[in-house]
Specification:
Helix content is about 35%, strand content about 15%. The chain is built from 13 helices and 13 strands.
């Protein structure tokens, strides 16, 4: 995020940004606006929301699926997400076994939902009859919502998809009717999946350790990541970098994608224009809270479920990004008579020495291979 805001003039320009990010996390909370819209706004400024609707519901170049959370993802990345669909629920953990047992007991409900969608087309969950033999048990909001649970599991398996939205409500249909004919469907091997997903994750992060990569994009689904990163490094598709300041070098193995080296060189030359913007609590740049704390010296936690009297900063606090530093946070609120209002606060934790709190990009020594300089790519 550098230079003047460049509002997207077409759906293609919105798609280019989402391609860079890899995914847009969805969240129903809307204090200022829905999170995915805030993420786009932080990078584009004003944009025509119909461009996103066009990509989702008309051209189908985007669809909703689970990345690191429920997200908007790229149809061109369907083979990456299809890998999870084919194996869900995977493993022999208690959660997976519980889902498998519930799905087995409620085969009639599953068959009825798929039959209705096949015959009638797109439907909302409330249009479908609950024929569960055993209800879904939960102390949370999903308890007893059997149709919603079944649709959610069928969605994770890639059997159904969100075909449209009526406000926040999902309208469901069979996946084969949602995905466009040009959707890439060739299955990926596990090795190819990790190579593709790791590069997508790294490009979205800018500079990252293997742990950062594993926690981003398709979080937690990078088997043998270290081996795949070593392959990509040998092939010159990614490069190792040193992340260092005048007084300290950050530990660990850090990578940058080879296609992003020109951006890194611009930053090293201070050939970029810092920008100030607000970030969604679910922005891709800060969703990994540990990474945010270590790289930016910014301790950020959501407090929406914290009792009001115990909140440190507010209900829905937006971090303030200034150049390559997180410098403050604002707690926005809507006053029906006066309009939007907010409380501004400074970070509670000083920026890390040698990190993004410095006035200049981190310096370093060494050549392009194995010792390329630089630390902070714009999000």
């Amino acid at each position: 995020m550098d230079g003047p805001l460049r509002p997207a003039r077409s759906p293609d320009e919105v798609l280019d940004l989402i391609r860079h990010l890899g995914c847009l996390q969805l969240d129903p909370i809307s204090v200022v606006a829905r999170s995915h819209l805030l993420v786009l706004w932080s990078r584009l400024g004003g944009f025509d929301r119909s461009h996103l609707d066009t990509l989702l519901w008309d051209e189908r170049r985007l669809f909703e699926y689970w990345a690191h959370a429920a997200s908007i993802v790229l149809t061109e990345d369907y083979p990456i997400h299809r890998f999870r669909m084919r194996s869900y629920p995977a493993g022999d953990g208690l959660w997976s076994l519980r889902i498998l047992a519930w799905l087995d007991e409620n085969r009639a409900l599953r068959r009825e939902i798929l039959r209705r969608l096949r015959l009638e087309g797109p439907l909302r969950s409330r249009d479908l009859e609950d024929r569960a033999v055993r209800g879904w048990e939960s102390t949370g909001w999903t308890g007893g919502r059997n149709v919603d649970r079944m649709l959610g599991f069928l969605w994770m398996q890639g059997r159904v998809m969100v075909a449209a939205r009526a406000g926040l409500q999902k309208v469901w249909d069979l996946s084969e009717r949602v995905l466009p004919p040009w959707t890439p469907r060739a299955p990926l091997s596990e090795r190819a999946l990790v190579r593709s997903a790791a590069q997508r994750s790294l490009r979205a992060l800018g500079v990252a350790t293997p742990r950062h990569i594993s926690m981003h994009f398709v979080a937690g689904r990078y088997p043998e990541l270290d081996r795949r990163l070593a392959e990509l490094d040998r092939e010159g598709l990614i490069e190792r970098v040193r992340v260092a300041g005048p007084d300290v070098e950050w530990p660990g193995t850090w990578f940058v994608h080879a296609e992003d080296l020109p951006i890194l060189e611009r930053i090293e030359a201070w050939d970029w224009e810092p920008r100030t913007t607000l970030l969604s609590p679910f922005d891709n740049l800060i969703r990994d809270r540990d990474r945010t704390a270590s790289m930016f010296g910014f301790d950020y936690r959501m407090e929406i479920y914290v009792p009001a009297a115990k909140r440190r900063f507010g209900y829905y606090v937006l971090p303030v990004l200034h150049g390559d530093r997180l410098v403050a946070r604002i707690d926005p609120a809507m006053d029906r008579r006066r309009g939007p209002r907010g409380r501004l606060g400074a970070p509670s934790v000083p920026a890390r020495a040698g990190g993004a709190g410095r006035d200049r990009p981190a310096d370093g020594r060494g050549g392009r291979r194995r010792g390329h300089r630089g630390a902070h790519l714009p999000g």
